[in-house]
Amino acid sequence: MQITILPASSKTAQATIRSLLSTPTNTNLHIRGLYRDPTRAPPEFTSHPAFHATHGDIRDANTLDLAGTDALFVMTPPRHDVDDIFQWAREASENTRAAIERSSVRRVVLLSSMGAEFESGTGEIRTNHIAEEILQDAAPEVVIVRAAYFMENWAGGVSSVKDQENPYFESVITPLEYEVPMVAIKDIGSACAAHLLTPTLPESPYIFELHGPKPYSVLDVQRAFKDATGKDVAVRPVEKQDLPAFFGQFLPPALVGPFVEMTVGFLPGGVMAQGNPDAEKRVQRGRTGLGDVIGGFFEGSA
């Protein structure tokens, strides 16, 4: 069986590859990772006899060779160097679909996001809605994994937690006691690998949300930072009215609006928080807890 990973450079793609390579029952498994620059593939993968890194750029349909691929993992890689991220999502997904149609791919596993079912009010997450619309029938079997908020997003607070006399982290999730689903990248990789390998699906497209073992609040994040460092850590909440200035510190102007709308969309009163009362959602849960992920940020620290 040949599985292709497109693109193979993201953290979620790497977690999927890692999970596939650790599957002992698939001795005939061959994994192709498509990279803009194959020489940058991690040695932990290229040293494995079942893995092969090759050139493929999702920005250029002509470079996407899926010949011999039985199952394809795909996601829309974020880009901060374009003025229109939604047009980029459309181009990337159409390039992927064209490559699938030139091949004999039987199954596609698309990594998407919670909230991708909504056409508007979700900001940056609408890139995943676009990808779902284009790829939901691109192959005979399609799996759509709508992942929750990544636990690893909290890595952005590590420097201020470690380097300040009065350690703190900032949170765009408010109020602090508000609980949201979160999931570890490791569990995303495990779920995607499992659905690339499972013999049959109940339907196509097969859509489910992927959460962690339980929902978490920012207060849980604060406790996890305290447990990991052994010191008190403050939270600096970023209120809704301050979101444009906050994101404007590190995002290009064209992305500030989509990130503000995305954040407001999953806070209380937002379209994603309200949900669709008519939708029946499948939810699968990972096993990795928030404390394990945040503790991992500090492994090896003095």
TrEMBL record:
Q: Which domain of life is it from?
A: Eukaryota
Instruction: Provide the protein name.
Output: NAD(P)-binding protein
Organism of origin: Aspergillus campestris (strain IBT 28561)
InterPro entries in the record, alphabetically? Answer: Ergot_Alk_Oxidoreductase (IPR051604), NAD(P)-bd_dom (IPR016040), NAD(P)-bd_dom_sf (IPR036291)
Q: Which residues form a coiled coil?
A: none
What region holds the NAD(P)-binding domain?
8-166
Give one Pfam family, short name only: NAD_binding_10
